Amino acid sequence: MWSGPRNISTAMMRSWENRPDCSVVDEPFYAAYLADTGLEHPCRNEILLTKSTDYGKVIEELTSYPVNTPLQYQKQMTHHIPRGMSMGWCAGMKHCFLIRDPAEVIASYVQKMPEVDADAIGICRQAELFAEITGLTGETPAVIDSNEVLMDPEAVLGKLCAYLEVPFLPEAMLHWPSGRRDSDGIWASHWYRNVERSTGFGEYTPSRPQLSAAHRQLAAAMQPYYDELSRWRLRP
């Protein structure tokens, strides 16, 4: 599942992890991304100490290590993947893209981080990876919109499971126990507080984000990438 930040990506991971046949991987390239970019993020030192900073090693773990469940769900952040990196390692996997309106992403992101730019929110990179993976696999990946998930999670997840050719388990995927998981990244203490209190997908609340002029300009620049991806979404 290819997502950017602030996009119900952790709630979606909870939904899949609550299935009895699925295990999850939480942002496996985060440490490599921080080491590569030198960016200061919350929990940076802990992330670098506990996760591999070598892209090749992470790929080896994702493709060579045994998986003890029939399904594995990888929560991937698009901005963690550097341009020019070969994506051949994931050619045999099923790919899905989780999108969200750029203005809403930016409004949420700046509540957690002091600065935001196009690279940080990964929307442009998401569109690039969508095109690259489509060409690599010969299949158009599934696209789901976070707002539509919140409006009707049963319908959207049902369509996603149909696309993936796996059974839809509504009792497992629409409700889960609150709390932290052993599978959560060490960054959960900063980013996952709302999800830790959740027991399901939250209600959709229409919003009109109040953005600064600079943030409105960034949202406008990202809108065409979001619109292009939105054309391919699974509609509820």
Radius of gyration: 17 Å
Largest sheet: 3 strands, parallel
Contiguous runs where pLDDT drops below 50 for at least 5 residues: none
Could you please say which CATH topology applies here? Answer: Rossmann fold
Number of strands: 5
Q: How much helix is in the residues?
A: 40-55%
Q: Give the CATH H-level superfamily.
A: P-loop containing nucleotide triphosphate hydrolases
Task: Chart the SSEs and their pairings.
Blueprint: E1 2-3, H1 9-17, E2 22-26, H2 30-37, H3 44-50, H4 55-64, E3 71-77, E4 96-99, H5 102-109, H6 118-121, H7 123-137, E5 142-145, H8 146-151, H9 153-164, H10 170-173, H11 188-191, H12 193-197, H13 213-230
Parallel strand pairs: 1-3, 2-3, 4-5
Helix pairs in contact: 2-3, 5-13, 7-13
